[in-house]
Recover the amino acids of this structure.
């Protein structure tokens, strides 16, 4: 990776990451409680019809774009031991371990989005046929998967934002 | 036992605990690498 291309991948990785994690926090910190109150008031339908599908669209594709630009950014670097940055990060090699933890957490979260949240949201929103019992089960799975991602976002952002600097007292002593 | 992920505060607290555990593991890996001259 040269400085002439690094900025591009880093910029779009962060832009897409804000889109993804911002919407994740919207769902967990705002929407869950808002839907609960709106349902009690009999007014939840517009949220499910107009807000959630649009938010999920940018949420799930934001996750993909974030991962691709992050992977490209890592792949463009050489690790201190000379191996490819992507491989060194995902195999937690030495000083690449901190960013590797961030990369693994981001990857688990991406798989959570496409493997659990989106398939179950499609049942909840009626995009695919499901019985009431299947919808109730889907609602619980999607909720827990989303909460798991919110929980994992805390260490993920820590390692992404701080990288090896959180270990600086051990590296640069 | 209640699932901590059912509440927002439980979710956030779990996130900080996982961060501390992973930081300790990462620190151990980095320290060993520095010690080995990698």
């Amino acid at each position: 990776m040269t400085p002439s291309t690094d900025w591009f991948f880093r910029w779009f990785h962060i832009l897409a990451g804000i889109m993804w994690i911002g919407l994740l926090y919207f769902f967990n910190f705002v929407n869950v409680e808002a839907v609960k109150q709106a349902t009690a008031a009999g007014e939840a339908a517009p949220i499910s019809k107009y807000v959630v599908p649009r938010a999920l669209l940018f949420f799930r594709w934001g996750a993909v774009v974030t991962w691709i630009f992050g992977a490209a950014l890592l792949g463009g670097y050489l690790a201190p031991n000379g191996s490819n940055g992507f491989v060194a990060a995902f195999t937690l090699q030495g000083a690449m371990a901190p960013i590797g933890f961030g990369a693994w957490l981001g990857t688990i979260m991406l798989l959570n989005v496409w493997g659990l949240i989106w398939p179950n949201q499609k049942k909840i929103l009626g995009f695919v046929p499901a019985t009431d019992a299947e919808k109730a089960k889907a609602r619980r799975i999607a909720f827990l998967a989303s909460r798991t991602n919110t929980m994992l976002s805390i260490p993920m952002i820590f390692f992404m934002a701080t990288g090896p600097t959180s270990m600086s007292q051990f590296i640069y002593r | 036992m209640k699932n901590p992920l059912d509440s927002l505060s439980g979710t956030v607290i779990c996130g900080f605990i996982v961060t501390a555990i992973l930081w300790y593991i990462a620190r151990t890996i980095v320290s060993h690498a520095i010690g080995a001259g990698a």
Observations:
- Chain A touches chain B at residues 28-29, 80-81, 92-95, 97-98, 101, 144, 147-148, 150-155, 158-159, 164, 166-167, 170-171 (CB under 8 Å).
